[in-house]
Specification:
It is globular, with a radius of gyration of 17 Å. The two termini are 19 Å apart. The chain has 2 domains: 149 residues, HAD superfamily/HAD-like (Rossmann fold, 3-Layer(aba) Sandwich); 66 residues. Helix 4 packs parallel to helix 6 and helix 5 packs parallel to helix 11. 47% of the residues lie in helices and 10% in strands.
């Protein structure tokens, strides 16, 4: 295991990936290791508005949240209508860092390869805006792997923790709930998967969770994750 912390039910049951025709990936923290950048830059940008929040508070409040909810929460914290200004400052910072340093989560390419080999469909269903998703996909040259199978919270009425984005992705991919698996790193995403009636596994392998994998895994399990893993290679190994 890649972590020194014990995770809740970290080993996938032997039949966990049987009869799966579709895998729906969250994006930030699952496909790209972006949350460590995004959450850190939320903190930096908040400092410009006179607020110093610890990363643990920022992670609890914003992990997996769509940008409109992030901006509303920032306005509540700051006590002023600064949402649009905050968003543009934050986006400028994270987009610059995405272009310079964003990396795929370890094991992503190998997992996509085995899904292709087994003719298992896959897509992205993210709380991120289309603008943020495209910038990140371009930065890691991963867009061609997903083509038109990238679904954003911009495309639905409500973001996670509501199930809309997963139900939209399922519909667009012609998937069946009982033959679909979601891989998610945020409690709000697991809650959305549970509300959609689609099995989900919690992923705790992102750099933003390095100091709290066990604690975070417990949060994911509490929201309905079937089990948690901290290596995408575990999925690849089972499918192989």
């Amino acid at each position: 295991m890649s972590s020194n912390h014990a995770l809740p039910q970290t080993h996938a049951p032997s039949d966990a990936f049987a009869n799966i025709d579709l895998v729906i990936f969250d994006f930030d923290g699952v496909i790209v290791d972006s949350e460590v950048i995004s959450l850190g830059e939320i903190r930096t940008t908040l400092n410009e508005f006179g607020m110093d929040a610890p990363l643990s508070q920022i992670r609890r409040a914003f992990l997996g949240a769509p940008v409109d909810r992030i901006c509303r929460t920032v306005e509540e914290w700051v006590g002023a209508p600064v949402g649009d200004q905050f968003k543009e400052l934050w986006y400028a910072r994270i987009f610059d860092r995405f272009r310079k340093e964003l990396k795929l989560v370890h094991g992503v390419c190998e997992l996509l390869d085995i899904l292709d080999a087994r003719a298992v469909s896959y897509c992205i269903a993210s709380s991120g805006s289309v603008r943020r998703l495209q910038t990140a996909l371009d930065a890691v040259a991963c867009g061609p792997r997903f083509q038109d199978r990238v679904f954003s919270a911009d495309m639905v009425a409500r973001g996670k923790p509501w199930p809309d984005i997963f139900l939209h992705a399922l519909d667009q991919m012609n998937g069946a709930k009982e033959r679909t698996l979601i891989i998610e790193d945020s409690p709000s995403g697991i809650k959305a998967a549970t509300a959609a009636g689609i099995p989900a596994i919690g992923f705790t392998g992102g750099a933003h969770l390095a100091s709290c994998r066990a604690e975070h895994g417990s949060l994911l399990m509490a929201e309905g994750a079937s089990f948690c893993i901290d290596r995408l290679s575990e999925v690849t190994e089972h499918l192989s």
